Target: Cardiolipin synthase
Amino acid sequence: MPAVQVVIEYWMLLIPLVLHGLGILFIFDVLMNGRTSQGTIAWVMALFFFPYLAVFLYLIFGARRIQDYAAAHQSGTTDTHHLGKMLRQEQQLRDLMVRETPQIDVLSDIYQLPVMKGNRCTLLVNGTATFDSILAGIAEARHYILIQFFIVHADDLGRRLKSALIERARAGVRVYFLYDKVGSVRLPRSYTDELRAAGVHVGVFRVGRGWLNRFRINFRNHRKIVVVDGEKSWVGGHNVGDEYLGKSTRFSSWRDTHVKMAGPVTLAVQLSFVEDWHWACGQRPEVSWAPPPTFGSEPVLCIPTGPGDMVESCSLMMVQAINAATWRCWMLSPYFVPDVAVIKALQLAAMRGVDVRILIPAHPDKRVVWWAAHSYLAEVAVAGVRMYTYRNGFMHQKVFLIDDCLAGIGTANLDNRSLRINFEITMTFTDADFIRRVEKMCRDDFAVSDPLTTDDVYRRSLAFRLAIRTARLFSPIL
Model:
């Protein structure tokens, strides 16, 4: 028998054995860590009977938590964990902590970070206002800058940001630049090489620790954070790219929301960045934890969430916000692929007479996700939830408004990816004046939106209705 044929037959025998072995190994993993019985049964059946495909899918999509990140986050043995305790125990900061309304106090307990008063918050509507504010803040930095985005493009806006960071780094300001490996996969190496050459510390967030996790590109760090000198911070929906300035060739305009916060809550935003930097780079950035000055009187709560949490904190945050509503629950998100808990909370809120509105884009950037959103329409509409589609370009903001007492602005979408898989950050507000500004912004958005009814779906073609039902099958990973 020729040697080549022997080698081929050897590998033809070995590869199936390896895949079946990995399938059995992953079955044990899913049995020990599966989140729901339905999902566990599906994975077990697939891994046992179809390991040739299921093994590769499980490597990418199987996990719902990053075990070692979770262990480090919760164990109390890491430096960053001690920093979180310090924020709650340092006396000068304790004087800035408040217990507000039950709606936000419960949210504070979810992540064990305090509501902090003494802030001045600025609502930033759309990209020009957001990046004018961010770039002005960077130019004023005296000590350090922390900057983190999910997507960074090397286009005009990306080059403006790079130039601003290089200028500050050359002026002696410590600059830490963190981006997500998957979200910024198209960012050229020359971009980060220029930053490093100027003295900027560059970090890449990836979850590829160990041979198993290196394939799990399903996890994303979706946070968008800028911190200047531990005093001012920016959080919201914008990434770094010309499309976020309304220069997209695909959409006529781009609707998004960010918020600038000056004051003590910036330390909680900073802590979120430090944890991510520590995970990505194995080091703590050199930052100040001294209580910053108070710039105003507004109380704000920072809620970072992600697959490193012991509970599904983002889903809990959304459910608590919806359950807290007594007469209004407005939720604006580019993607609406909720989990069962969020759906039930929306249904119950509408049934008890709450004005529940969901605003999604009329024009999708991700068609499969958009199709999946339509599959939930009948399920929520029957309970009285009203859905609308934003028709003036593409809407990418992540905002919720509960009664006149709570508003949320951040990076978390109303989809399974944000609720369970992504690292996210949401800022929540109770100040009456700020909530009125958010309400006006939302009313302006609803004014350029159209109601979406079940008839709108039933009148569509059979192909469309089949597409939305098929897309829903992929909802756990959308």
